[in-house]
Amino acid sequence: MKAVKIILGIIIGLSLIFLGTGLVFKQTEYTTQVEIDKPIEEVFKKFEDKDLLKQWIPELKSIDVIEEKPGKVGSTYKMVVENNGERIAMTEKVLAYVPNEKITFYFDAENMLKTDEYTFTANNNKTKIEKKSTCKSDSYLMSCVFPYFKGTLKELDQNYLNRFKKIAEE
């Protein structure tokens, strides 16, 4: 009986820690970056190329325009990604757009709300891309999960930037 109480105590303790995570961490933030050995104008042009997008984000299956606005800010797109055989539809909205400087996207993928801010910086004939990402959720339980997967999310985004670097430098 004592062993059962100890096990239950451990389970309850871990559950409280997990559920407390959502109270402490309202969102998960991380930064990734890459330096590309090409001029900023060329890098930015390739970054915007929707045909190249599927090459550096292989999980992306389709991207369709919902509404495209002049100046791109406020434009929305429907994206479908495939993750482990499961297709997930999401909405992408352009929050900020400054050619050769910055693009900010907001993604709504059911329980995951993500903002990606890309900043482009020229350094001689090279371009540095810094990506600041913020993940949160409308679901309290999902908010509790994101901090534990921060490393995985960051690694995934870094891999995408590394793939883009390879494509951009070709």
Automatic annotation (TrEMBL):
The keyword NAD does not apply. It comes from the Bacteria. The keyword Iron-sulfur does not apply. The chain crosses the membrane at residues 6-25. SUPFAM superfamilies: Bet v1-like. InterPro entries: Polyketide_cyclase/dehydratase, START-like_dom_sf. Coiled coil: none annotated. GO terms for molecular function: transferase activity. Keywords: Membrane, Transferase, Transmembrane, Transmembrane helix. It holds the Pfam family Polyketide_cyc2. This is 1,4-dihydroxy-2-naphthoate prenyltransferase. It comes from Tenacibaculum holothuriorum.
